[in-house]
Amino acid sequence: MALSKLLVAFVGIKALGALGLPLLAQETPAATYPPEAIAVFMQECQAKFAAQAPAGFSDRGDRYCTCLINRLQEKMTYEQFQQMTPDNEPPELKAATNACIGAIF
């Protein structure tokens, strides 16, 4: 009888531990990129946004680019961010782009 109670307690603790791992991972603070890198990204992003935005929406570039850099910092390390090129766009960039476009339009 005592062994079964111990086993139930152990399984309960293991289950709680497994449930707690995703919660701990979500609480990890976002990466912070160097201010210079953010400034360059924002400048380039806003220029591209203004060139591609539909008429009447070019003023939303700051909000879009801020959203995008914030999401990238949440999902990618700075090293991964540095490796992005037009030929090497990670799935995190597409997901962030779609979320930010949805947020501003």
Portion of residues in helices?
over 70%
By secondary-structure content and strand pairing, the structural class works out as mainly alpha
Net shape: globular
Query: Using DSSP, what is the number of strands?
Result: 0
Whole-angstrom Rg: 21 Å
- Assembly type of the chains comes to single chain
Spans of at least 5 consecutive residues whose pLDDT stays below 50 are 1-28
Largest sheet: none
- Helices and strands, in N-to-C order? HHHHH
Mean pLDDT: 79
Count of DSSP-assigned helices: 5
Strand content of the residues, in percent? under 5%
How far do the termini sit from each other?
Answer: 62 Å
Walk me through what this model shows:
- This is Tll0426 protein.
- The protein has 105 residues and is an all-alpha fold.
- The chain has a domain at 35-103.
- It has helices spanning 2-26, 35-52, 61-75, 78-82, 91-104.
- Helix 2 packs across helix 3 and helix 3 (61-75) runs antiparallel to helix 5.
- The longest helix has 25 residues, at 2-26.
- The protein starts with a helix and ends with a helix.
Throw out a few tags for this protein:
mainly alpha; disordered N terminus; Tll0426 protein; 105 residues; 5 helices; 73% helix
Please specify the SSE layout and strand pairing:
Blueprint: H1 2-26, H2 35-52, H3 61-75, H4 78-82, H5 91-104
Helix pairs in contact: 2-3, 3-5
